[in-house]
């Protein structure tokens, strides 16, 4: 089969600076990320050096204020960067999305003093973040979390366990949601916790079907003491902060999903145009041509959906419903497209000699993280029909 390189996505970008940024990302992805992705995922190796490179290149704080080391980029540009990174390796694309999510609380709700002290290192100083909301017994029902923070003079003492934490055990800082008051959403407060805090530890990473290079682990807080100066926002404001972050985080997952789907389509097209049966390329057969056309159409629709939501966010308009729609549609698309890519490659698609089986395994988790797709449907329905009656 001929070595057919996929054509880069023809992107609609608002500025020449954004076009240069995408060119930089593609260069890093092609030189540093994609060539080692399959081998390192198979070995379960976390590519910390890649995140260091992205930080040095100014790519870990793109949607944040340049005053604190960010990139001053609109979300529509930042998300397309995520898509490019995820197409090269989902561990990297999703890792950047999670890091951005971990920075959201301080960047949007922290005091000026907190932002000056912490944000430069978080956005461009080589640090990597984790977002600690879910717990073993509170996933979709995040308002029922049990990790506690108890006031002790000028400090807070944290006790509890967080679960399904991306970068658990390797993060330099954690944004932690903990209970400081009564039951329910109003009793939750946000904190910025250093990753090397005494009493903070991580369990052995989960053994997953995909994204083996990205550590996902329980994180334990055993008498972790932090000063009140690391409390983000007001006491009891934490759940509102978390929901605000998740609206943006869902767009990050949507962009990553489109990246994985695009990578799978590129592989399927390259294979179908190079593989011959019955004396001609299998791409000549109508059944396969239609399958490729449907895959491409779903990807283009997903990309348009997440960009529409991003542009609403950039304009300061409500975007929660569109973010949920984008997360739902794009991740379902990634699952369908990767399954179809395996089918296009036939028996070869089921082997580790080609990357589409890895894409299929990775796509599945995107339907689960940042709120399952069932939760996204609930969010969308509430916007349409109001809250459920009790």
Task: Summarize the structure in words.
This protein has 390 residues and is of the alpha+beta class. Helices cover 51% and strands 14% of the residues. The chain is built from 10 helices and 10 strands. The protein has helices at residues 16-43, 48-56, 75-88, 90-109, 112-124, 238-274, 286-314, 320-345, 356-366, 373-385, and strands spanning 129-132, 148-152, 155-166, 173-179, 188-194, 200-202, 216-227, 231-232, 276-277, 280-281. A 4-stranded mixed β-sheet has the order 1-4-5-8. The chain has a 4-stranded antiparallel β-sheet with strand order 2-3-7-6, with no helix packed on it. β4 (173-179) and β5 form a beta hairpin. The longest helix is centred in the middle third of the chain and has 37 residues, at 238-274. It is globular.
What is the structure about, briefly put?
The protein has 390 residues and is an alpha+beta fold. It has helices at residues 16-43, 48-56, 75-88, 90-109, 112-124, 238-274, 286-314, 320-345, 356-366, 373-385, and strands at residues 129-132, 148-152, 155-166, 173-179, 188-194, 200-202, 216-227, 231-232, 276-277, 280-281.
Layout of SSEs?
Elements lengths: L15 H28 L4 H9 L18 H14 L1 H20 L2 H13 L4 E4 L15 E5 L2 E12 L6 E7 L8 E7 L5 E3 L13 E12 L3 E2 L5 H37 L1 E2 L2 E2 L4 H29 L5 H26 L10 H11 L6 H13 L5
Parallel strand pairs: 1-4
Antiparallel strand pairs: 2-3, 3-7, 4-5, 5-8, 6-7, 9-10
Helix pairs in contact: 1-3, 3-4, 3-6, 4-5, 4-6, 6-7, 6-8, 6-9, 7-8, 8-9, 8-10
What structural class do helix, strand and pairing data support?
Answer: alpha+beta
Point out poorly predicted stretches: none
Number of helices: 10
Largest sheet: 4 strands, mixed
Helix content estimate: 40-55%
How far apart, in Å, are the first and last alpha carbons?
60 Å
**Strand percentage, roughly?**
5-15%
Cross-sheet strand order for the largest sheet: 1-4-5-8
Cα gyration radius (Å): 21 Å
The count of strands amounts to 10
Mean pLDDT: 94
Reading the helices and strands in chain order gives HHHHHEEEEEEEEHEEHHHH
Coarse shape: globular
């Amino acid at each position: 089969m001929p070595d057919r390189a996929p054509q880069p996505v023809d992107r609609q970008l608002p500025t020449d600076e954004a076009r240069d940024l995408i060119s930089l990302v593609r260069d890093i992805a092609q030189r540093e990320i994609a060539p080692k992705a399959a081998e390192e995922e198979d070995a379960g190796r976390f590519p910390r050096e890649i995140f260091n490179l992205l930080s040095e290149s100014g790519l870990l704080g793109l949607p944040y204020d340049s005053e604190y080391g960010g990139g001053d980029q609109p979300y529509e540009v930042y998300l397309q960067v995520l898509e490019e990174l995820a197409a090269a390796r989902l561990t990297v694309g999703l890792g950047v999305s999670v890091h951005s999510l971990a920075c959201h609380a301080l960047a949007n709700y922290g005091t000026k003093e907190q932002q000056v002290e912490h944000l430069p290192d978080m956005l461009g100083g080589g640090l990597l973040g984790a977002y600690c909301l879910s717990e073993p017994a509170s996933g979709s029902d995040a308002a029922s979390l049990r990790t506690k923070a108890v006031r002790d003079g000028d400090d807070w003492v944290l006790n509890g366990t967080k679960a399904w934490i991306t970068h658990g055990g390797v993060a330099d800082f954690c944004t932690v949601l903990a209970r400081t008051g009564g039951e329910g959403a109003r009793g939750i407060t946000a904190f910025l916790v250093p990753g090397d805090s005494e009493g903070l530890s991580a369990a052995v990473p989960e053994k997953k079907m995909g994204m083996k290079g990205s550590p996902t682990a329980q994180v334990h807080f055993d008498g972790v003491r932090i000063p009140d100066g690391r409390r983000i926002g007001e006491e009891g404001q934490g759940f509102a902060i978390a929901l605000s972050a998740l609206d943006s985080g869902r767009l990050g997952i949507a962009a990553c999903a489109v990246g994985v789907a695009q990578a799978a389509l590129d592989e399927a097209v390259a294979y179908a145009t190079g593989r011959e049966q019955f004396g001609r390329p299998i791409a000549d057969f109508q059944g396969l041509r239609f399958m490729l056309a449907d895959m491409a159409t779903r990807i283009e629709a997903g990309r348009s959906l997440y960009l529409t939501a991003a542009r609403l966010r950039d304009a300061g308009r409500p975007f929660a419903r569109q973010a949920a729609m984008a997360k739902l549609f794009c991740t379902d698309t990634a699952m369908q497209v990767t399954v179809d890519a395996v089918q296009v490659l036939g028996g070869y698609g089921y082997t580790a000699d080609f990357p589409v089986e890895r894409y299929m395994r990775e796509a599945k988790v995107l339907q689960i993280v940042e709120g399952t797709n069932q939760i996204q449907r609930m969010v969308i329905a509430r916007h349409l029909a109001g809250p459920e009656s009790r």
